[in-house]
User: Which sequence fits this backbone?
């Protein structure tokens, strides 16, 4: 659990330097835990995805499949229209995230957690 000055230092070190988007919390204080990905543990990788177009025919509430082959990534999402096995495929190039690329999660129990983004598509 991170508090006060330590929280400011963690956010400055991980989220301010060389990052295009900064999160500002005004007049609200939350306890933020530092996630395993920031501390160097954990096996899971977090990906950020940017879309140029988000079709309405995709069933965004359903689970998709992320396929990584070398430097290329495909995101396969089920369609909300047509046959049940129909899917929309998004393609992109994979980039490694900077050590300062982070995301702040609000978990289902209301706790806040800072995690590192490992890859960008």
Assistant:
């Amino acid at each position: 659990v991170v508090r006060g000055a330590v929280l400011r230092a963690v956010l400055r070190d991980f989220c301010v330097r060389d990052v295009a988007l900064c999160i500002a919390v005004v007049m609200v204080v939350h306890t933020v835990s530092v996630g395993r990905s920031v501390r160097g543990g954990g096996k899971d990788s977090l990906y950020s995805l940017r879309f140029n177009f988000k079709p309405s025919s995709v069933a965004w509430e359903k689970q998709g499949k992320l396929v990584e082959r070398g430097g290329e990534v495909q995101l396969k999402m089920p369609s909300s229209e047509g046959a049940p096995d129909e899917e929309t495929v998004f393609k992109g190039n994979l980039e490694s995230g900077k050590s300062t690329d982070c995301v702040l999660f609000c978990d289902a129990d209301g706790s806040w957690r800072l995690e590192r983004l490992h890859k960008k598509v």
User: Anything to note?
Assistant: The mean pLDDT is 76. Helices lie at 4-16, 36-39. The two ends are 31 Å apart (CA to CA). The first strand starts at residue 32 and ends at 34.
